[in-house]
Recover the amino acids of this structure.
């Protein structure tokens, strides 16, 4: 067996779980039963217990989705990838996603939901894949001749008990003190509550948080962010940048500092850069950009400067007429100076000093106030 | 019309191999231009790693067992950590 890097695990019980939506392949009662039985598989060999919630957030959110479903790891249609899950932690961590292009069944005529759910919940609890073909945590799906006879392998039990220990001998001991996940050791500046950022952007499914000469690199699958010198990846880029945004359809991140900007694709700074920001259509009075973000649905880039914003049509390669406009008018609740902004899971995340505002561009309202470094597993 | 049907089949299976090793065994994306030569160093190393992990005979070659395993339904979490 193996565990995720850094051995993330839950430090509280009961854990909450929520079945967010259902596949049409099975009656919802059958889905409930499969998930319940899959959780019991782990409950029986650990001190952990699970309680179901029906709305709002839960430690383990269970969803059925197809293709691209917002976590930068799209499903691939029928066959091949059946499901995936994230290790213990906040937000998307702990969640399990099932590919609804599969034919989910109660028996083994199709893909058995209980078997796959038990495997994915092993990930949600902190187990990685096992090289033991007999283990439930072996990555390749294997049906069972007689599902009633299913039981965990010794490898699975050793694995999960290396994280949580055995079940209590008496039921009373089941309840363990509730604690949040302690911050792992890391760069102290990472978890400084006063931390602010120069710029934030996505890059091929990862998140980059720029500060002075460095940036934090965060991959959704890895709990612990990496910390690098900007120059170690892009030697010709300046430090202390002003803004950054990714146009995913072009696989390009644009970096701004003062009245110049660069285009990078992976590790490569594109030829012909830096260019002047006036080439984008800014008036000469604009000397620098505070923040920028590409709206993938509208295919527009929003530039934020002081209390105003511009909108740039990436297709036409020109600024939208009728702008600039006041940020507060069109982004209610966003009324302080913006340091950085990026888009993820359909939200804009605006950074101002050590505060981060989760903004729903469709509902046009702030939906959550967070610390700026909430992504860095503090 | 594809000029060489066989190569097309071969192309698509090479794409599958590339994708599989990238997704689950950390094959660096920038070895893309080598994948057409199955015997390139990094790719052979990753094929061996995959064969060892999944309990196959470790040959470093894309034998039928290995190709069959790559087509089996599975979990989308990688087998080796990033």
């Amino acid at each position: 067996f193996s565990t995720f890097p850094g051995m993330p695990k839950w430090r509280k019980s009961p854990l909450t779980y929520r079945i967010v939506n259902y596949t049409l392949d099975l009656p919802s009662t059958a889905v409930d039963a499969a998930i319940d039985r899959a959780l019991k598989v782990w409950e029986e060999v650990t001190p952990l217990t699970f309680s179901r919630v029906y709305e709002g957030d839960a430690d383990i959110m269970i969803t059925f989705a197809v293709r691209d479903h917002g976590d930068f790891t799209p499903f691939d249609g029928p066959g091949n990838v059946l499901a995936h899950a994230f290790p213990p932690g906040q937000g998307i961590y702990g969640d399990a996603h099932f590919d609804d292009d599969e034919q989910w069944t109660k028996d083994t005529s199709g893909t058995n939901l209980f078997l796959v759910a038990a495997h994915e919940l092993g990930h949600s609890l902190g187990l990685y894949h096992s090289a033991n073909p007999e283990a439930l945590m072996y990555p390749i799906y294997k049906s069972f001749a007689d599902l009633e006879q299913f039981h965990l392998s010794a490898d699975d039990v050793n694995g999960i008990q290396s994280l949580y220990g055995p079940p209590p001998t008496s039921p009373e001991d089941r309840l363990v003190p509730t604690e949040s996940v302690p911050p792992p050791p890391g760069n102290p500046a990472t978890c400084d509550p006063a931390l602010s950022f120069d710029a934030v952007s996505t890059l091929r499914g990862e998140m980059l948080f720029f500060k002075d000469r460095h940036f934090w690199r965060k991959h959704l699958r890895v709990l612990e962010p990496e910390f690098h010198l900007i120059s170690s990846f892009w030697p010709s880029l300046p430090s202390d940048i002003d803004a950054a945004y990714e146009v995913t359809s072009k696989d390009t991140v644009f970096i701004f500092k003062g009245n110049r900007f660069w285009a990078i694709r992976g590790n490569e700074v594109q030829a012909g850069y830096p260019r002047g920001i006036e080439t984008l259509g800014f008036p000469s009075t604009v000397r620098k950009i505070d923040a920028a973000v590409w709206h993938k649905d509208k295919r527009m880039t929003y530039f934020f400067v002081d209390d105003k914003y511009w909108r740039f049509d990436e297709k036409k390669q020109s600024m939208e007429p009728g702008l600039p406009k006041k940020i507060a008018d069109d982004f209610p609740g966003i009324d302080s100076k913006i340091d950085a902004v990026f888009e993820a899971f359909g939200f804009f995340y605006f950074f101002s000093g050590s505060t981060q505002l989760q903004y729903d561009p469709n509902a046009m309202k702030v939906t959550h106030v967070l610390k700026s470094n909430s992504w860095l597993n503090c | 019309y594809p000029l060489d049907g066989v190569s097309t089949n071969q192309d698509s299976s090479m794409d599958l191999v590339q994708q599989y090793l990238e997704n689950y065994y950390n094959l660096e994306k920038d070895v893309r231009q080598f994948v057409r030569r199955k015997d390139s160093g990094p790719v052979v190393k990753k094929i061996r790693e995959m064969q060892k992990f999944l309990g196959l005979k470790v040959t470093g070659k894309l034998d039928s067992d290995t190709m069959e395993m790559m087509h089996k339904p599975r979990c989308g979490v990688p087998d080796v950590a990033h």
